[in-house]
Sequence to fold (452 residues):
Amino acid sequence: MLGTGFPEESLQKGLAMRPHFIGVDAGSTDSGPTDLATGVCRYSEAAYRRDLKLLLAGAVENNIPLIIGSAGGAGGDKNVDWTKGLIEDIISQLNLSLKMAVIYSGQDKDWLKQKLAAGKIRLLENAPELTASVIDESITIVGMMGSEPIIEALNNGANVVLAGRATDTSIFASLPIMNGAHEGSAWHAAKILECGAAAVEHRPSPDCMFATIQGESFIIQAPNEALRCTPTSVAAHSLYENADPFKIIEPSGILDTTDSIYEAVNDKVVKVTGSKFEKSEKFTIKLEGTRLAGYQTIVVAGIRDPLILESLDKFLESCETSIKKRIKNTYPDLSEDDWKVHFRVYGRNGVMEKREPTPVIGHEVGLIIEATAQTQKLASSIASVARHQTLHVSVPGWFGFTSNIALPYGANDLVRGPVYEFNINAVVEPDPTDEMFKTFYFDYPKVESEVK
Fold:
């Protein structure tokens, strides 16, 4: 992913293999809604500039397109504009000549409400309810484009395609499909390429990957000769980020890898055959939306008391009861809907919580207390109440005054500021299929030096 780095040597070796284009995934919502809600990339500007400078120079020098998807960390319009500014700085710095297509994926709220009223939006599994008010309260809503807008940009002569939120695979499948490649091979190769060298046997750090599509098959290999693709490592990548490793959904259809065959060409190169792409009856675009959940302050603590750990759930229930009572006394006009305290227990089920199949407790656990409210001042006040009540709530088996938790930062709670959550997870049926994404073209001519 753009901003995570790659060896320059690997890029140069890949370019020496004469590719038809360079693709790079530049974002994801896997790490949460913050990038999408704020338009701020989680990776540094310096890291983005370094990667973009190498990629832009490589594409222009080799006269091949550079395709960037989910720009700026999440693909929202602000993320795209930030990335566009960096690219323009690099174009000026390197004095490059190119045509750039910028594809925005932000969605109009009135249009979405019309689609909702017309029954053209369908919720995905476990998604929250979607109403007109949910759409109105959203900070950012994007559609996740497929290959269609990217192909249009390439057909219109773009040397660089800077796309908003996009499926990872569409970044890499678009140009091959445009040139008549077998769609099963194109989409499957794209799935392997989208995380770079993640499909090698052992990847010590982010790196490049190269695919060659040959009819109904494709060859996959890493330009870095120290990395090794095997049938198992390549096949295993279909498990990554997919509920079903054999059915991978795109806006226009489904990549079916059920009958795919993975064969070793040698000890570093793999050939894949038998992949299929099935066109869907309905063209759909996934919607992602974010909202402000509130403001948050957290308390970091540790528990080592064996009596507490023997009955940890009862202890936390006692803490919650004590916290609610104290907040009600302190803020009699405050509704329980205006604040929330959440415990995360690391050392038992901090990662998976209720889904944890083996909630075994060791000799100590880490405890994070999250206090969320509609203002930062209130969140910090709630956190201080939660910290104090958890610290001193009565514990069965102990007599007298006790201190139940260790506080590595003392009473200095950690202010997180505004926090966000996803509030839309659905698909919409656009009609026509290209009505959701806006593309703008920019020409950057090379500046000729004055000769005196």
